[in-house]
């Protein structure tokens, strides 16, 4: 990987520049509810929730809750998750939904054998990228959220509605852009929280970490030689059978940290549906050089986890980015302190709808990779801020964190 993809900035807290923003989106129709596992009755997180007739989507939160909003009436809602049968539910106006998803009973015909060389399957899927993903530019509206936890307590929450412009999948990611439409931030005011982490790039992370499009990450001839691939048990996603192929570093003789991960590849279309990646932390110094841009000299920093989840959805025979999440865990302490403090940074983006026509984002409005969302966002004051927006519902723990930070 020739480019530094993840760019985090660790430094002493300072005041963010705040400004008012226009409320330009109005979504008059909505459906809400909760999704649970039918066998255990437990809430299901990160279920893709979409309205096929309205071309809008979201994902469930940690409590299994969702709200789907649209400018047109929502007649049907589809629910899909890896390892579960897809559910399509007719909407009755005014009724909250409780969706019970059944695990897939994986039964294969004796004549169907999913085997073969996993590297060859991956290479074949790479060769089919331009057939399976749009070669035309697309403009997508998305919801983006950043959170930082110090131990188990939230110290920073920032959210945004953004547009992302993606060139065709026959090109690289370097002309892809993101622009904010509306955003807000809530920061801890406690003196003990003066050490903070800010994330450079905001929603542009999902653009540069689109591994199918950014082949500098792993999907090129040079990178593939650095990994071992292994065939795992097949899985069903959205009613379609998938190859499941894990990968791990084949060598430690590299200047940069490599990745462990799992690829989910549609058996029929040979398209990538889901990519899970986790940076190799066996050499903390090597991983740190890829992650940290700047930190105080006297701060000791130890990364524990840097992982990514990328989901793609299929619409009319074309696959596109649907959901992205990165999780970063690390320890920090000043050299004179005995114990380190643990931090967790989570960034997630869900594509909520497609905008026509695909008007390119101008250079002046584009969110740069060096920009920091909290420096551009307005204050977390209006309780109805997202009332007319299609978002990832905050989990109960996040709602409690918002109320606690507001009282500080």
> Helix proportion of residues, in percent?
10-25%
- Characterize the overall form: globular
Determine the mean pLDDT: 84
Q: Quick one: biggest sheet?
A: 11 strands, mixed
Percent of residues in beta strands:
35-45%
Strand arrangement in the largest pleated sheet: 13-14-15-16-17-18-19-9-10-11-20
Structural class: mainly beta
Low-confidence stretches: 1-25, 108-114
Q: How many structural domains can be distinguished in the coordinates?
A: 1
Description:
The protein is mainly beta. It has six helices and 20 strands. The radius of gyration is 21 Å and the shape is globular. The N and C termini lie far apart (about 45 Å). The model is unreliable at about 1-25 and about 110-115 (pLDDT under 50).
Short structural description:
With 408 residues, this protein is mainly beta. It has helices at residues 118-127, 129-132, 204-208, 221-224, 284-291, 396-407; strands at residues 8-12, 29-37, 48-51, 56-59, 65-70, 76-80, 87-90, 97-101, 138-150, 153-166, 177-187, 195-199, 227-237, 240-249, 259-266, 272-279, 299-315, 318-334, 341-355, 378-379.
Fill in the keyword field for this structure.
408 residues, four-stranded antiparallel beta sheet, mainly beta, eleven-stranded mixed beta sheet, 11% helix
Walk me through the topology.
Layout: E1 8-12, E2 29-37, E3 48-51, E4 56-59, E5 65-70, E6 76-80, E7 87-90, E8 97-101, H1 118-127, H2 129-132, E9 138-150, E10 153-166, E11 177-187, E12 195-199, H3 204-208, H4 221-224, E13 227-237, E14 240-249, E15 259-266, E16 272-279, H5 284-291, E17 299-315, E18 318-334, E19 341-355, E20 378-379, H6 396-407
Parallel strand pairs: 2-8, 11-20
Antiparallel strand pairs: 1-12, 2-5, 3-4, 3-6, 6-7, 9-10, 9-19, 10-11, 13-14, 14-15, 15-16, 16-17, 17-18, 18-19
């Amino acid at each position: 990987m020739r480019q530094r993809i993840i760019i985090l900035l660790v430094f002493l807290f300072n005041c963010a520049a705040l400004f008012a923003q226009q409320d330009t989106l109005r979504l008059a129709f909505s459906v809400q509810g909760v999704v649970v596992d039918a066998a255990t009755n437990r809430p299901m997180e990160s279920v893709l929730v979409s309205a096929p007739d309205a071309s809008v989507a979201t994902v469930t939160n940690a409590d299994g809750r969702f709200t789907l909003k649209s400018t047109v009436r929502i007649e049907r809602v589809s629910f899909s998750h890896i390892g579960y049968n897809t559910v399509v539910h007719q909407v009755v106006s005014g009724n909250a939904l409780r969706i019970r998803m059944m695990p897939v009973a994986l039964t294969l015909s004796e004549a169907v054998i999913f085997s073969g060389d996993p590297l060859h399957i991956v290479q074949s899927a790479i060769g089919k990228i331009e057939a399976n993903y749009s070669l035309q530019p697309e403009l997508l509206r998305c919801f983006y959220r950043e959170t930082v936890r110090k131990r188990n307590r939230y110290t920073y929450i920032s959210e945004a509605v953004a547009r992302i412009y993606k060139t065709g999948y026959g090109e690289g990611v370097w002309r892809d852009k993101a622009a904010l439409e509306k955003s807000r931030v809530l920061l801890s005011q406690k003196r003990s929280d003066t050490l903070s982490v800010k994330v450079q790039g905001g929603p542009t992370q999902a653009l540069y970490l689109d591994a199918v499009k950014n082949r500098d990450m792993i999907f090129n001839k040079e990178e593939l030689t650095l990994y071992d691939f292994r065939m795992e048990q097949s899985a069903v996603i959205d009613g379609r059978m998938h190859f499941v192929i894990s990968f791990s570093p084949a060598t430690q003789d590299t200047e940069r940290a490599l990745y462990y991960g799992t690829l989910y590849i549609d058996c029929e279309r040979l398209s990538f549906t889901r990519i899970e990646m986790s940076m190799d932390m066996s050499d903390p110094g090597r991983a740190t050089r890829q992650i940290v841009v700047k930190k105080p000299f006297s701060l000791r920093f130890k990364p524990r986890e840097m992982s990514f989840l990328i989901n793609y959805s299929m619409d009319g025979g074309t696959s596109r980015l649907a959901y992205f999440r990165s999780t970063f865990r690390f320890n920090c302490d000043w050299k004179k302190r005995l114990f380190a403090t643990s931090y967790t940074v989570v960034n997630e983006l869900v594509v909520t709808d497609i905008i026509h026509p695909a008007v390119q984002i101008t250079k002046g409005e584009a969110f740069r990779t060096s920009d920091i969302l909290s420096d551009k966002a307005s204050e977390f004051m209006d309780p109805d801020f997202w009332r007319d927006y299609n978002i990832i519902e905050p989990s109960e723990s996040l709602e409690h964190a918002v109320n606690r930070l507001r009282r500080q």
